[in-house]
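Before we proceed, please read the two lines closing this message. Tell me what the token row says about the fold.
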Amino acid sequence: MRRSFLAAAAAIALAMPGAALAQETIKIGILVALEGAFSEGGRDGVRGVELALRQVNNTAGGRRIETIVAPTDTRPDTAVRQARKLIEQDGVDFVIGPLSGSEGIAIRDYAKTVPDKTFINGSSGALETTWVDPAPNFFRFHTDGAQWGVGLGQYVVEQKRWRRIATVSADYSFGYTNFLGFAVDFCRAGGDIVRRFWVPLGASDYAGVIAQLPDDVDAIYLGLGGTDAINFLNQYAQAGAQMNFIGGTIMADQTVLTSRGRAKDLLIGTPTSGMISDENPDAAWTAYVAAYRGAFPEGQRFPSPTIFATGYHIATLAAIKALNDVSGDLSGGQRRFQQALATMELDTPLGKIKLDQNRQAIGPVFVNEVTARADGSLFNRMVKRADNVTQTLGLTPEQFRALGLPSRDNPDCARLRAGR
């Protein structure tokens, strides 16, 4: 009789999908760079995920959430290998990540080979990831690196009166993308880029580049981040050089602003731009910062969340909302889940985010200046905000496509000024 009762109970459970789903754990793979130039940012990315899940008691769609972290080193081949492990060996239901630009392009291509799995970008910002032949199961809920440059070029020309610059940027997809967003704005405002330098991601010696920087310019645009930016700035200070800086988005992130050494002295007054501002007064942002500080002890976090924490946090918020919208149902090749992601308007610490037809975020971008507090700590003070920035930077898709893809030589200032 007991066996008959258990068999009947099992049959009822199988006939009730909601009950069965409630007993199954959802596994999320977290693909994040924990080695290389952005390792500190990667650790903050994990904090962003943890914070979002703590706020819902690790439950969404009536199901418990389990995470498996797969560390990368920003190299595309490593990212794909770890993503494949998450799916084929660890059996995750979907993936949040990756962190860095070229990783994102590689994961976009890998995503096409596993259409019944979903990928929600962490913080990688290369334009091509969602602009060139996008994967229908890849979603990015934050603005990309080109969007992050909107407004900065015009600001430095009109407010700082810096019209002639040299540039030093990381020689990979995100470096090109972030530079394009700034340069389109800068050149159309009347600025001139007199010389460009491209350096490998993860370089340690910048003496040769520093020695070649021209001194007849108004400022240097520095498109480096993490330990790359710290190393460059420290070596620049040691060389005794003095010049105004314009920061690429990750050049003045909290991972750099909290560094030790002489680099910090060079940063005060540096204009930069990106998807966040450290002291954004909006209630959603201040609540997020307070939650971040409360969740992690001082000394084990940054004074405020980095773009890496924020990107991964927003991705996790999107996953939670979509799971709730479909009651945790990931059956049928995750089509309902993916449709929920594609059509949602998401409340985030940055305000409402929605996706375009390429599953790419339309959202706000902030122009900031690095400012010192009374205690000497540095933060990004917001000086300007642009809302609803599209991936095409306000241009029609045809106009934006005519600009060409970002590269070492593109965009070209003379061509942009001629067409403004």
About this structure: The chain has a mean pLDDT of 92. The CA atoms of residues 211 and 239 lie 9 Å apart. The first strand starts at residue 26 and ends at 33.
